[in-house]
Structure formats: structure tokens, C-alpha cells
Amino acid sequence: MSLLVFGGLAGALGAGIQFSGDPSAAGPRQQLALFEVVDEAKPDLKTRLKTDAAEMAMLPQVDTDGYAEVESGDEPSLGIAYAEGAEATGTGGPSDDVMADGEGVGVRINGKLVKPGESYGEVTKIASLDDAPISGMTETVNGVRLPRIAADGRTPAEAYARPFANPGQKPVVALVVGGLGINATHTKSAIEELPPEVTLSFAPDANRLQYWIDRARAAGHEVLIELPMENYDYGRMKMHPQTLLSGKGADVNVPRLNTLLGRASGYFGVINYQGAKFAEDATAVRPVLDVLSKRGVALVEDGSLEEASLDKVADQTHVRYAKAASPIDTKLTADDINLELMELETIAKEKGAAMGAGYAFPITIEMAKIWTSELGPKGIILAPVSALVGTTPAELVDAERVATGSKAQAPVNPAG
């Protein structure tokens, strides 16, 4: 009974506190916080469009005097190199040899030397020669498109040549690699792997001849067309149907020449293919060179002909002419080819210029790549063959005929 009375009193007391009491008076209380409680404030914002002038005035000022004279070493590379201590038109590149003779005055951008007065676009354009045919430099004769001298006097020998200049009058070497267009792999290798200063010659019956010439010129190479000439001994080889023959006159050889010249366009000259027998017959040679002279096409001799009359007749007919010292790859070994190339360097240093001729054998292309890459430190310039051709054969120097030109001939084509 007493328990029931006590329970009733406790329940009544609790109900009274619930409806009328102050909980804070019941005893101490502790508040637990899961996050720190702070007064709210405006966040600091970086305003880009509009800033209070008063706030800007409160910002610390940074002194930038002298910053321009300090090199951090962290400047980005823009592909532009100036010579140390030079102005914007200072010497380009680190070569002492270039700086010494003034040949490299300018700025080197991405490996290209831009001289005062030139633009980068003008310099890089040389990497690709103009599309062929050039307007006004062809004519059609009996259904055959042939090269011709333009109305303004430009000749194919000039218009289709690769630009070249040698202001320092350094020794010059040139190289022609031929037999192209027959083997697509070798042709592609020569076009893409050899420096653009190397002249390329194409067989007249090459598959897609104009295509290959266009590709070569797009890569910067000037080109020649090979003229098959009668040899003494063909062995098992069959004579080309358009071979220029000894003992024959203009009535036979000129139509054959026109057929060969009409195979393509974009070549600055022609080069002999074989021809020991034909080249000895000055009577047969003359009408052929008369046509070349009339059409402004250059003649290059590959150095394989011992008793040729080509140089003498070229002199008489005023044909632009150049002759190689010798073939470089009659023996297809690296050592033998290298010896021939070293001989060209010797001739160039002694007489001003030298030219070699070879074929697009893999070993020839490989050796030519190595050789041309090493000419610069030797003080020798690689030139296109057109830079060595003159309106007459090479003059006599030291009582000897210079087969590959002279110092006076090298600048013949300074501007293309």
C-alpha cells in the first residue's frame, strides 16, 4: 500500500516539473559541439572585374626596379638563338667559322639562319622548290611539251635550279645521285634522306617520272634527266630505243632528244647515261647541244667519259656545262666510296670546286649522308650541281682544265 502511495507522489512531481519547471535550475549543463562555432564573416575574394579604390590603396606596392637586368635561368625556349653579346642582328649560331667570315650574320630560328632583310618564311621556303612547269617555260612541238626560254629571258637552267650563295668564297663540293625512278625504295630513300643540296637525276623511262620529280623538288632537290648515249659495249644490256647515236645527224638524234626532253618538266639540265662512243663524235654531238642551248637547258657530264668532246662542243654552242671529277661508286664498298669523296674535298680546296657523281645504291646513299654531314667543320660548302655550271666549260687553272669548275663559277647562281 505504501509503495503505491509513494509511486503516485513521484509521478505527480515529475508532471509538475515538465509543465511548469525551469530545466536549467535542475543542475549543471554541458553543450557538446561537433564543429567549431565562430562568428560568420565575409570571405576574402579576388575580384578581377571591379575593385574598391580604397581597398587597392591599402595593398602593398612591389618594387620591380632592376628586375629586367636579372636572369632567372627559367626563361622558356622559343627556338631563337642570338650570339653572345650580339644585337638582334648578331651572328646566328655558335660556329666560330660562320662568325669569322660574316656568312652567318643574322638570327638562327629553329635551325634556320635568318639574315637581315629576310623573313623566316622566305628562308624556309627554300626547302621546297617551285612547282613545275613554271608558266611560260614550256612549248608544245609535234605534240611533245618541251622546255623553252621564257619571254623575260629566264632559262630552265636558271628557273629550275636550287638557290645557292657562297659569299665567303669557301671551297665548294657538289654531288649528283642518279638512276632514280627505277626502284621506288631507293628513289624514296634518296629524296628523303639526302640533303636538299644533293642534285638528283632520273632515268627517262622511270615509272611515274613526273611524280618523282615533283616529290624531289618538294623536298628541295633540283633534278636532271638522264640522256642515254651510245656506248662501246652493252654486253647483255639492250640499247634504249631513244639512245643518241654516233655517226648519226640531227635527223635521227634531235627527234630522240625531243622525246626524252618531253618525258617530264622541272629539270634544270640533262646528264649523260653512258655514252663513251657518242661523246667522241663531235659531229653527232653538236646538233644535240644546239637544241640544249636553244632551249636553255644545262648539260652535266658524269665524269665517266675519257675522250669526250662534250666540253669543247658545249663551249662552241654556249651551253651551260659542268663535269664531275669522276664517278664515286664504280667500286661498291664503303672504303672505296669514301676515298672518292675525300678526293673531291682535296680538289675543292685546291681549285675552288669539285663535283662527284654516283648512283642510288644503298651504300652510296649511306656514305653520301655521312660525308655531307661532316663537310661544315671542314670549311667546305655543299652546293647543288647548278651552282657549278657556267655558260662555258671551266677555265684553265695552273695549266690544267678544272673539270668541276672554278671559284668564279660557284656564285653563278646566287639567287636561284
From TrEMBL:
<dbReference type="InterPro" id="IPR011330">
    <property type="entry name" value="Glyco_hydro/deAcase_b/a-brl"/>
</dbReference>
<dbReference type="Pfam" id="PF04748">
    <property type="entry name" value="Polysacc_deac_2"/>
</dbReference>
<dbReference type="InterPro" id="IPR006837">
    <property type="entry name" value="Divergent_DAC"/>
</dbReference>
<dbReference type="GO" id="GO:0005975">
    <property type="term" value="P:carbohydrate metabolic process"/>
</dbReference>
<protein>
    <recommendedName>
        <fullName>Divergent polysaccharide deacetylase family protein</fullName>
    </recommendedName>
</protein>
